[in-house]
Amino acid sequence: MDKPSFNLFDKFDSILSKDDDITRYSQGDGPVRYMDGSSLNRPITMPAKKLPIALAFAAVAAVIGVLLAVNLLGSTLHAAQRSAASVEENLAREVSLDMPLISSYAGMDAASVKAATDALGLNVYTVSSDEDIAAGKLDMVKMPSDVSVEEGAMYYAQGISNLDAPDAALLLNGMWRLQFDSTKSFNLSIRYADFDSGNVDTAVENAIAAQGFDASTATELDVDDAGNTFRSGTLEAGGATYNWRVSAIGLDAVYDISGLPDTAIYVGVRMTAA
After folding, report:
1. Residues 6+ away with beta carbon under 8 Å from 257
2. Residue 80: C-alpha distances to residues 87, 171, 266 (Å)
3. Where are the domains of the chain?
4. Per-residue confidence (pLDDT) for residue 8, from 0 to 100
5. With the C-alpha atoms ordered 48, 49, 54, 59, is the resulting torsion angle positive or negative?
6. What's the CA dihedral at 229, 165, 163, 256 to 10 degrees?
7. Distance in Å from the first CA to the final CA of the chain
8. What are φ and ψ of residue 246, in 5° steps?
9. 3-class secondary structure for 181-192?
10. Which of 34, 86, 204, 251 has its C-alpha lying 20 to 30 A from 215's C-alpha?
């Protein structure tokens, strides 16, 4: 009877082979499992049968995008058109400036200037406090005749430069601001927007005529360092001599409001003790 053969070298190779398997597939106390990476080798291109569906979705998205853009552009355009129409309507209102003659305040103190202005019966908003007036300072804003003091004060409190063009046109057309300071000497000014004159030279001449100043004795038109076009002169009122000056500059140099007419002018009339 043949005895089974035993090859020591084959047995040793078998043991080594098992050790290699353990080393290759295990780590620590448990086996290492490798993920199937075959899916990563698939092509990333879209299957041909799904391409028409994707193109259809893309076309729908493009159409929606175009419609939204057209709607947005149309809304913006219509808003601009409505704003321009509102500006034109507010500037076409029949409102009177009702500006007092600055010379009529000659010799007055702040309280007297306020009382005289209140007596005109206009829609006037007094910015100054009683303490300011007692100290010789006065700030008053005359609102347009069709704007209440309460509504005008609300707009004014926002800051005119912060208003949009329609609201600014509503407030500025027919509004003027009177400021008075007698802490050092008599100093009174009235400022307003002029939407009718069309240019600074005409605005200055119209203001001189409205105030009744003697243009024949006034200086010629000139431009100061700030860009204001002006004329100046003297007047006698209340037994005293005063200097007057009328200046004008583009309204856009004072208020940064898009949508107001380029021909709008900001006019200032000042009277000071000589």
Report:
1. 160, 161, 163, 164, 165, 168
2. 11, 20, 24
3. 93-273
4. 47
5. positive
6. -40
7. 150
8. -120, 125
9. ECCCCCEEEEEE
10. 251
pTM for the structure as a whole = 0.72
Residue 234 near residue 244, CB atoms below 8 Å:
yes
CA distance 218 to 233: 4
pLDDT per residue over 132-153, tens digit each? 999 999 999 999 999 999 999 9
3-class state of residue 239 by DSSP: coil
Task: State which amino acid sits at residue 167.
Answer: D
* Distance, CA of 269 to CA of 203 (rounded, Å): 11
Which pLDDT tens digit goes with each residue over 212-256? Answer: 999 999 999 999 999 999 999 999 998 899 999 999 999 999 999
Per-residue model confidence (pLDDT) at position 35: 60
Query: Per-residue pLDDT for 84 more than 90?
Result: no
Residue type, 124: V
User: Which pLDDT value is given to residue 195?
Assistant: 97
Label residues 178-189 b or e (16+ Cβ within 10 Å = b): bbbbbeeebbbb
- Amino acid identity at 58: A
Q: 9 pLDDT band (50/70/90 cuts)?
A: very low
Only one residue has tokens 């400021």, namely: 179
- Cβ atoms of 264 and 168 within 8 Å: the answer is no
Interatomic CA distance for residues 254 and 249, integer angstroms: 8
Tokens of 184: 């050092």
Copy the structure tokens of residue 55.
Answer: 């193109």
Which pLDDT score, from 0 to 100, does residue 107 have?
94
